[in-house]
Amino acid sequence: MKTNKLIFLVLLSSSAIAQSSLQNFYARNDFLLASSGSLKSGLWGYDNPALLNYQHQFDLSFMWSNDVQGLGGVIDRYGVFTAGPNFGFSAVHESHDRTSVTNYRASFGVGNRMVGVGFSYGWTPGDFFERPDVYAIGTLFRPLPHVSVGAVWTSSIDGDDYELTADIGLRPFGNELLTIFADYNWRANNPFPVLPFYGTARWIALEVPRWSAGAVLEPLPGVRLTGRYFENNALTVGLQLSLGNVGLSTQAHYDNDGNYSHMTYGVRVGAYDRTMVRKTIDRNKKYLELNLQGPIDYQRYRFFDNRKTLSDLLNAIDAAKTDPSVGGIAINTSAMMATTELLYELREKLKEFRATSKRVIVFIDRVTFPQYYFASVADKIVLDPYGELSIQGVVAGRTFLKGTFEKIGIGVDELRFFKYKSAAETFSREKMSDADREQRQALIDDIYTHWRNEICRSRNLTPERFDEIVNRDIVVLPKEAIMYGLADTIARWEGVKEMIKTLDGSEKGYITADRLERPNLPPDNFWGEKPQIAVIYALGVCAMDEGINARKLVKDVQAAVENPSVKAIVLRVDSPGGDPMASDYIALALKKAKGKKPIIVSQGNVAASGGYWLSMYADTIIAAPTTVTGSIGVIGTWLYNNGLKESLGLSTDFVKVGEHADLGFGFGLPLIGAIPDRGFTPEERSRVEASIRTLYTDFVGKVAEGRKKKPEEIEPIAQGRVWSGIDGMQNGLVDGLGTLETAIMIAKAKAGLADNEVTLVEYPRLGLFNPMAFVPRLIGIEAPPEKDQTLDLIKFHLRHNGKPMPILPLEDLMMMEIPKQ
Questions:
Q1: H or E segment at 676?
Q2: Residue 797 CB contacts under 8 Å (≥ 6 apart), including other chains
Q3: Could you tell me if 738 and 344 are in contact, meaning their C-beta atoms sit under 8 angstroms apart?
Q4: Beta-ladder partners of 230
């Protein structure tokens, strides 16, 4: 005791010297269970501020130590640490029976998963004396899943005292199971390298360590065992236990003689952490609730956009599949809006979910055939008491404007030279051509057969029985649906919980997608950046500055090709074609990338004509069974005045230089645009025909090159013929049937990443919000009425009047268009 008092008196007498010194790193961070970069978030920026770059949610921790005898009294120490993404604040209090002091620190960190940097500022007011304010600059580098390297430079504001602490962590298995770590501390040469009180009492009687080494073992999720050896032969042994949003920790400290010194404890609340609780106590206690009301799209703006996206829904289903607390999914399809292909994508994901022996319950009210096809994947279907099933079959038809154009005086020259290329028939005919009827019938036959077979397989019906229901019942009412085996019970959405209780034998609570385990897990299980797969969306008509917006999209393709973090590219095509230049911009960029990175195409609802042009150079093309693909062909349309100008009392006149300078000159009409005064001369038509045939030959040749075939092998399946994904696989236009996720898995495998976690990066990136969403609210007017699709169709063809176009009938696309907000 006398020795301890002597040390304390020496410290007091040396306070003038000590005030200019930094507290030693190891004493300052006595609550640390391991080196800063080796265990989760360290001390929330109090140790290395760069760690705040990896803080994923708000977190609050209280840590304290038991009493430590020495220096003639009792020394107490406790700390409060709080942090959110990028920011942290900490306060560590040390007290002696004669005085006390509190260290405060504000921290900030930024970066990505590979590199983080941070800055912190610390100050220490006290009732005995003040320590100097300090600042720290930290960095963390994680180039591989196996390695983490960190460093912290700490200095007093006056710059007289400083230290550098570096640490390294090694993960032999590339995950959190085992982490081996070491650190080293360099200091300026001060006679008193540490300050009162707690750290001094502990370390001044011993040799101040310069390095430590140890290991962290996580044998079960959230159960972490730590051991740490110091240069001065001191030792710590710790345990950290996660209960999800709450955590507990304790650590035993031993001095250089192996004698027990003291204990530190910690309680954490806030951020979610890996835990065994979901696999034990909470196992299968919840159902994921998915409300699919409203439009489902590919992308959305970050703010003020209520659309659901395909990727978000797929991720939610996949996260529910691996979440041990989730026993099933309850889906509300009321007012759901999605294309048939997106429904296929979601249905296939739910089939995968059910394969894990978890249940799917679907609520329906008024559903069409494709919506019922989606719902039929369920274990049980709950139908609203006033709901109905409209499953009359599949139809594909068109509205023909030839008679209307004749009456109003618009002439049409259909520049059609290939059997199945029917995009202009809506203007030039009064009914379908035999060729168009043939291809459309084949297409809907495949769609109907696919839907019927999947429904029958799910609902244990025979195809004959299903055909009978379709052909006899115009609308299937609730009681009939139960009798036919198309639904399992009649109730409102609230009745789904009763269905779940009946099936599982106990009541289950609902959980939303944002509360699932995977999106809430801390990022510390994987060090560094995961390899990236770029998913590039080519959506809408092929055009340079609208639709797929080729002028901008090609830059996204090039950026993905040049980005070393992107290991493969998946192009998602949902396009009927259009401008061949726009299609070729993207196709050529992908062709140049071949051999550098795997190029996989995922075809959506429609990827035909110019949409197939986008696809043809891929290493692999994946389509859905009901995808509209192919249509390798070119067509043109020439709309011109045939009496409309005269009937309106309009007249035009001109002067010209050049024999054909007046081709395209005409009069303008509101809402429609300019209509040429005349049709083609025989010479002009012959020239346009030559350009169409030349483009067609070029198209066929490019497809043959992309598919590694000869042009004569492509010709029989070209001529503008559309095919279903099923037929496209049989004739070699596509390589396999599947979803966007199927394409991503193939891309991973071809990039050598089949067993690796990857990050999906999407292009193009939408802005923060859609300015048009605020127009009615800002200026107090009604939202504009829904567009007239017929006028849009006419305007589009007038804008591309007479041009060779690899395009499908646009009215078909309009009928299948993804709903917008």
A1: strand 673-676
A2: 424, 427, 637, 639
A3: no
A4: 212
Distance CA 41, CA 224 (A): 14
Q: Which amino acid is at 205?
A: A
Phi, psi of 449 (to 5 degrees): -60, -40
| Contacts within 8 Å (CB) and 24+ apart, 132-135 | 132/19, 132/20, 132/22, 132/156, 132/157, 132/158, 132/161, 133/157, 134/22
Work out the burial of residue 190: count CB atoms within 10 Å of its CB; fewer than 13 is exposed, 13-18 middle, 19 or more buried: middle
Ramachandran angles phi, psi of 238, nearest 5°: -130, 165
The answer to whether 171 and 527 have CB atoms below 8 angstroms apart is yes
Cis peptide bond prior to 8, omega within 30° of 0:
no
For every residue of 638-674, DSSP letters joined together read EEEESSHHHHTT-------SSTTTTTT-EEEETTTEE
Instruction: List the beta strands (DSSP E) in 512-565.
Output: 532-539
Place of tokens 């009927």: 576
Query: How far is Cα 805 from Cα 412, in angstroms, rounded to an integer?
Result: 16
Q: Which residues pair with 108 in a beta bridge?
A: 87, 119
Alpha-carbon torsion angle 189, 191, 196, 199, nearest 10: 60
Q: Are 326 and 511 a contacting pair, CB within 8 Å?
A: yes
Residues of the chain with pLDDT under 70: 1-21, 67-75, 96-98, 126-131, 189-207, 771-789, 811-821
DSSP notation for 182-217: EEEEEE---SS-S-TTHHHHHHTTSPPPSEEEEEEE
pLDDT tens for each residue of 245-280: 999 999 999 988 888 888 999 999 999 999 999 888
The two tokens of residue 221 are: 């999720």
Cα Rg of the chain, angstroms: 35
Q: Name residue 5's amino acid.
A: K
Residue 292's nearest CA partner among 352, 355, 363 is 363
Q: Looking at residue 96, what is its pLDDT? A: 67
Q: Per 3-state DSSP, what percentage of the chain is helix, strand, and coil (rounded to 5)?
A: 30, 30, 35
Q: What is the dihedral of CA 350, 352, 353, 356, to 10 degrees?
A: 150
Provide the pLDDT for residue 127: 53
Question: Which DSSP string do the residues of 751-762 spell out, in sequence order?
Answer: TT-TTS--EEEE
Q: What is the DSSP letter of 773?
A: G
Distance CA 182, CA 170 (A): 9
Token pair, residue 99, equals 């005085």
Is 480:279 a contact under the CB 8 Å cutoff?
A: no
Closest to 537 (Cα-Cα) out of 299, 340, 283, 213: 299
Q: What pLDDT, on the 0 to 100 scale, is given for residue 189?
A: 54
Q: If you write DSSP's letter for every residue of 211-239 in order, what string do you get?
A: EEEEEEEEEETTEEEEEEEETTS-EEEEE
Q: How far apart are CA 675 and CA 357, in angstroms?
A: 62
Token duo for residue 144: 């591989």
Neighbour count for residue 788 (Cβ, 10 Å): 11
Q: Is 484 exposed, middle or buried (0-12, 13-18, 19+ CB in 10 A)?
A: middle
Phi, psi of 93 (to 5 degrees): -110, 130
Q: Where are the beta strands (DSSP E) in 396-506?
A: 410-415, 489-490
- Coil/strand/helix, residue 432: coil
Phi–psi pair at 367, nearest 5 degrees? -125, 150
Helices (H), 708-755: 711-714, 725-731, 740-750
541 with 572: CB under 8 angstroms? no
Q: Are strands 509-511 and 736-737 parallel, antiparallel or unpaired?
A: unpaired
Q: What are phi and psi of 592, to 5 degrees?
A: -65, -25
Nearest to 423 by CA among 818, 819, 814, 820: 814
Cis peptide leading into residue 197 (ω within 30°): yes
Cβ atoms within 10 Å, residue 775: 13
Helices 550-562 and 580-593 pack at an angle, to 10 degrees, of: 0
Strands 286-291 and 326-332: parallel
